[in-house]
Amino acid sequence: MLVSLLYFVGLGLALRDYAFMPGLLAVLLLLSLISVVLYARDKRAARLGRDRTPEKTLHLYALLGGWPGAWLAQQGLRHKTRKLPFRRIFLLTVVCNLLLLWLLLFSHWTDGGRGWLDGQVRVWQSALPARYNSLLTLAE
């Protein structure tokens, strides 16, 4: 749990000056929540002998950013912790996600993209009623 908490807190602190940060964190939290649900459903299906969630689906959600939730589910549910090929692919999805996230958010190659995205969020904020802006301006 500590790893997941540190991931989200660290990401939030690193991106606190960007207007898109709350939305990005919300998407990553949602992907993590979906991952937890998928693992729980798969664990239940395994115990009951029902159709299982494909491993490629579990890996896809981890790769897209839901790996903190997937990791928590693996540890909390004791599911997919002993299957070495699955663990290796999972670790690869975590590394790929972190590298891609770093490239998109912190690389000098993507400065223009971050600036554009930040500008778009600020335009959307100005179009929203004031009561919704407080939800989107946590970064400021």
Question: In words, what does this structure look like?
Answer:
This protein has 140 residues and is mainly alpha-helical. 79% of the residues lie in helices and 0% in strands. It contains 6 helices and no strands. The two termini are 27 Å apart. The model has no long low-confidence stretch (mean pLDDT 84).
Brief descriptors of the model:
140 residues, elongated, mainly alpha
SSE map:
Elements lengths: L1 H13 L6 H28 L6 H23 L6 H23 L4 H17 L2 H7 L4
Mean pLDDT across residues: 84
**Care to count the β-strands?**
0
Q: Spans of 5+ residues with little confidence (pLDDT < 50)?
A: none
Number of helices: 6
**Biggest beta sheet summary:** none
Approximately what portion of the residues adopt beta-strand conformation? Answer: under 5%
- Calculate the terminal CA-CA distance, rounded to whole Å: 27 Å
Order of helices and strands: HHHHHH
Range of helix content: over 70%
Structural class call reads mainly alpha
* Rounded Rg: 17 Å
Envelope shape: elongated
Task: Provide a brief overview of the structure.
By secondary structure, the chain is mostly helical. It is built from six helices and no strands.
